[in-house]
Amino acid sequence: MAKVLIIGAGGVGGVVAHKCAMANDVFDEVVLASRTLARCEAIKAQVKEMQGRDIKVAQVDADDVPQCTALLKTYRPDVVINVALPYQDLHIMDACLDAGIDYLDTANYEPPDVAKFEYKWQWAYQDRYVAAKRMALLGSGFDPGMTNVYCAYAQKHLFDTIEYVDIVDCNGGSHGKAFATNFNPEINIREITARGRYWEEGEWKETDPLSVSAMFDYPGVGERRSFLLYHEELESLAKNIKGLKRIRFWMTFGEPYLQHLRVLENVGMTRIDPVSFQGQQIVPIQFLKALLPDPASLAAGYTGKTSIGCLIEGVKDGRRKKVLIYNICDHAECYREVRAQGVSYTTGVPAVTGAVMMVTGKWKGAGVFNMEQMDPDPFMDDVAKRGLPWHIQDRS
Ligand code: NDP
Q1: Which of 184, 189, 298, 343 to mutate to test the pocket of ligand 1 (most atoms within 8 A of CB)?
Q2: What is the CB-side half-sphere exposure of residue 142 using CA atoms within 13 A?
Q3: Ligand 1 site-directed mutation target among 19, 83, 104, most atoms within 8 Å of CB
């Protein structure tokens, strides 16, 4: 049996805590630590009520490496699941090295002052993790995460060569609010307002933010307009899927959402640089975050489904082939099971499966790994049983 320590008690942290508590055949001890102890306490009470299990809670500022290391040395978990914000990634990776503990996250590091999603900062830990004989698993959420594993599965079982990948992400649900984001608003808005980028024939190509769109037919949801965005898994997949000619990422947005975003951008509310306000410096996007609904609070009453997958085209046995590997997730069912909405759920479940792979030794290695570098089969089996069944549709 293993011990897991979760850092971050937001929407995703809540799902991870529930799901680790439900995995009582793998984890005999679950610790949830975050900046605000009250949020950990609230999740602890909910886990006790719904799963009948006691979890431990602790307060930590994960940006304080010595404090985080001391926490890890106190509890000595087998793995840390980092579901705080991307800003904490490097600090938690440092603490895991200091304490000699394996590390997992769901989003790549980005510096607070530039909206740049790149793996270079975390890949730079490779030699240190190898030397310490520790494992760091990067991006074990849905996208990145499941999408990487779907590509690895396609490469292993469905294709001789994969040439084109389009990652297609649709939230066809409705939370009833005029404007809200489904995960941390600051991270979400930084991602969407950044320039679009995709990889083709060995080169990165840029587009203006949200300037390229296309219609996709999403299983369980239907046709939806989808916008080309840069997303972090493109970087590792372009490197690790051999023979690839092009990879892009698409996400659906409704017109009311885009209209709100345009206005917020036009008035400067999405800026990430500090501005002077009444004698103090404030960062507009952080102020906006304080005004917007907490993503976890959207869960009650959320209806509809998410439908996310990889549309993959290539060659098998000399013939061209195109498939969609995907999952459909129902917001209301997630709420019934773990009091979460579908976006938190689809991120939290693969994080738990990733941790299960690590502590059971099904995935092991020394160094820093992206998901597609590991064997997809045990992950695909586990994640389906844990709540995210997947399907393959022929789109040839
Ligand atoms: P939330 O904002 O709801 O939660 C973040 C949590 O992290 C909060 O509890 C926050 O504490 C805590 N936190 C922030 N800073 C620190 C710190 N210095 N020390 C300790 N705890 C800290 O975010 P979400 O739950 O929506 O998202 C969590 C992560 O999941 C993010 O990194 C996000 O990018 C990622 N994600 C990944 C997806 C994927 O598919 N791969 C999809 C969606 C999200 P406090 O309560 O005090 O604010």
Answers
A1: 184
A2: 30
A3: 83
**In the structure encoding, which two tokens stand for residue 382, read together?**
């586990």
Report CA(299)–ligand 1 centroid distance (Å): 16
Q: What is the pLDDT of residues 309-350, one digit of tens each?
A: 999 999 999 999 999 999 999 999 999 999 999 999 999 999
Rounded Cα–Cα distance for residues 350 and 78 (Å): 17
Residues in a beta bridge with 80 = 5, 103
- Is the CB of residue 6 below 6 angstroms from any atom belonging to ligand 1? no
Task: Output the CA–CA distances (angstroms, integers) from residue 344 to 91, 244, 339, in the order listed.
Answer: 23, 30, 10
Minimal-distance CA residue to ligand 1 atom 46 = 36
Domains in the chain: ranges and CATH? 2-142+348-373 (3.40.50.720), 146-340+389-394 (3.30.360.10)
| Ligand 1 mutation target, pool 7, 16, 35, 289, most atoms within 8 A of CB | 35
What digits encode the pLDDT tens for the residues 345-385? 999 999 999 999 999 999 999 999 999 999 999 999 999 99
- Distance between CA 390 and CA 279 in Å, rounded? 53
Does residue 140 line the site of ligand 1, with CB under 6 A?
A: no
